Automatic annotation (TrEMBL), chain A:
Family, as annotated: Belongs to the RRS1 family.
UniProt name for this protein: Ribosome biogenesis regulatory protein
Biased composition annotated in UniProt, kind: Basic and acidic residues: 169-182
The entry's keywords: Nucleus, Ribosome biogenesis
Compositionally biased residues, Polar residues: 1-11
Source organism of the structure: Eremomyces bilateralis CBS 781.70
Automatic annotation (TrEMBL), chain B:
Protein name: Ribosome production factor 2 homolog
Basic and acidic residues compositional bias, start-end: 293-311
Source organism of the structure: Eremomyces bilateralis CBS 781.70
Superkingdom of this protein's organism: Eukaryota
Every Brix domain range: 28-243
Pfam families named among the record's database cross-references: Brix (PF04427)
SMART domains tied to this protein: Brix
Subcellular locations according to the entry: Nucleus, Nucleolus
Major place of residence: nucleus
Presence of the UniProt keyword Ubl conjugation in the record: no
Record GO biological process: maturation of LSU-rRNA from tricistronic rRNA transcript (SSU-rRNA, 5.8S rRNA, LSU-rRNA); ribosomal large subunit assembly
Length: 211, 323
């Protein structure tokens, strides 16, 4: 093995090319056209390499490689949709054609549990947990609160109502109840003594109507 | 064979899940290994291939004794499973197999195919011997294969080499690629096969792309050799078992694009959809209502003889209307 480093040949010494040469360089023409698989950025060149003598190996290979690179880049720029965005210009590649084996077999489909099979038959859909969680976001207090229950969102909203529409039905029912109460003859039902009476602050009439 | 462990923590569960077969697979990891005896050339080659492969690679630098890929691949299969690596490159050196690199591809941690390549120490040049700018780490290379041996219709060492090299260097399966990311090309070539002469060498060259304005739409591409430069003599190879290869090449049905029925694009480029409606039932079609067309209450059918009779006597409907 040769351990010396290889200097790079500069491009400055290259002569200027004519238009025809340039065209030839940009669109290399080969007896057997290249097959290109843009998905893998892969190019196959079925043309036989010219015979290589020890001194001509590197230039020959490099020119063959240059033609390949030129054709591949040209193909990519012409055939792949170009997307420009803030991050730069990118090419959308097609799906690869050259088949390569997978790393692992295709995962087997999991066998359905009894419930899953039943649910599918009945069209029952699973509800995700986050779809309806216990806690909800409260815009007013900027905090997570319980949906229902003490201090819950429902309760807060009820408290925040500063005007409530009269429920006519309910009102009518109440009025009717009161009137029914009035119409009732006194002492018909079992009566409880009033609070004052119970505490013994009121003197009972000593001789009632009985006497 | 590793014993199967039941995960105890969520973290280990996640790791094990990642190792399970996936519908959309992760890019293959490559493991670089060396044998008990590995020459300087082999070690440098392993280091350089690793540099091209990063970050999808693992490189082990300790000596591994008693690994003979073609005789007993069990330890390689163990390494593959342990490191979840589908590709292995094993380098060693012996008198019989000088400067040998064995490329191994696994399918579900079992050896699928293998290829042995002997580096030519005379023409070998490392990445660092080329004093120029290198490509970015993890960039996707352009790949090109020149020469007729790679196009052979039957499976031989060269077609295996092509498949292995594409698999080794392709990197991520990207749906889109930044133009800036097209930085280098790996060019692999082989000369014509000639009867009576040793099999042609596989020559690997890595070039950095330099694009220049050409005045045309496509830029002018020029190449600058970046290294490594490796010439391989072809050694033994093991072809994949046909049935296993068939299994490995299967495409999951879930990923196949469903053909959209009844949607077409016409010549102008407009999207045209076709809708199928059932045959219309014309018997119950509501037409304009007219008194004269009303059916009689009593009779269900009216035929010609009835009409004649009716012309003599006034129709019963009319009389009903008069009353």
């Amino acid at each position: 093995m040769d351990t010396q480093s290889i200097p790079q040949t500069g491009d400055a010494s290259k002569p200027t090319r004519s238009a025809a040469e340039m065209k030839e360089l940009i669109y290399p023409n080969k007896p057997i056209p290249y097959t290109i698989d843009a998905g893998h950025l892969l190019l196959s060149d079925a043309n036989p390499l010219p015979s290589l003598s020890p001194s001509s190996i590197e230039p020959t290979l490099q020119s063959a490689a240059r033609d390949c690179a030129q054709s591949l880049i040209g193909h990519l720029l012409q055939n792949c949709p170009i997307v420009r965005d803030d991050t730069g210009v990118s090419l959308t590649l097609p799906t690869p054609q050259y088949q390569l084996p997978r790393e692992k077999p295709i995962p087997k489909e999991k066998e359905k549990t009894k419930w899953e099979a039943f649910a599918e038959r009945k069209g029952i859909q699973k509800r995700r947990k986050d779809e309806r969680s216990k806690m909800v976001w409260d815009e007013v207090s900027h905090d997570w609160v319980k949906r229902y229950g003490f201090g819950g969102k429902a309760m807060r909203e009820k408290q925040l109502q500063w005007v409530v529409e009269v429920d006519e039905k309910e009102e009518r029912r109440k009025v009717a109840e009161e009137e029914a109460e009035k119409r009732k003859p006194r002492g018909s039902g079992p009566t409880r003594p009033g609070k004052a009476e119970r505490s013994g602050q009121v003197f009972k009439r000593k001789n009632g109507k009985k006497g | 064979m590793l014993k199967t462990v039941k995960p105890k923590t969520a973290r280990s569960k996640r790791i094990l899940e990642k190792k399970q077969p996936q519908l959309v697979e992760n890019p293959k990891t490559t493991l670089f290994l060396r044998g008990q005896n590995a020459s300087q050339v082999v070690q440098l080659a392993l280091a350089d291939l690793n540099a091209l492969k990063r970050p999808l690679s693992i490189r082990f630098t300790k000596k591994n004794d008693g690994i003979h890929p073609f005789e007993d691949p069990s330890s390689l299969e163990f390494f593959s499973e342990k490191n979840d690596a589908a590709l292995l490159v094993f380098g060693y050196h012996s008198k019989k197999r000088p400067h040998c690199l064995t490329f191994i591809r696994c399918f579900s941690h079992k050896v699928l195919d293998m290829l042995e390549l002997y580096i030519d120490p005379e023409s070998f040049r490392t990445l660092n011997q080329f004093k120029n700018e290198k490509c970015a780490v993890g960039a996707k290379p352009l790949l090109s294969f020149s020469g007729t041996p790679f196009e052979s219709p039957t499976t031989n060492a060269y077609s295996v080499a092509k498949s292995l090299f594409v698999d080794l260097f392709r990197g991520h399966d990207a749906p889109s690629i930044d133009i800036e990311g097209l930085q280098y090309m790996i060019h692999i070539s082989a000369e014509e096969e000639v009867e009576g002469q040793p099999a042609p060498k596989i020559r690997m060259r890595v070039y950095k792309l330099v694009t220049k304005r050409s005045g045309e739409k496509t830029p002018l591409v020029e190449l600058e050799e970046m290294g490594p430069r490796i010439d391989f003599h072809v050694g033994r190879h093991k072809q994949a078992d046909e049935s296993i290869m068939k299994e490995a090449l299967k495409r999951p049905r879930a990923l196949e694009a469903r053909t959209k029925k009844n949607i077409e694009t016409d010549i102008v480029g407009d999207k045209v959809g076709r809708i199928h409606v059932g045959k219309q039932d014309l018997t119950h079609l509501q037409t304009r209502k007219m008194k004269g067309l009303k059916r009689d209450r009593g009779e269900s059918t009216v035929d010609a003889t009835d009409l004649k009779e009716r012309s003599a006597s006034p129709p019963p409907k009319k009389s009903r209307a008069e009353t």
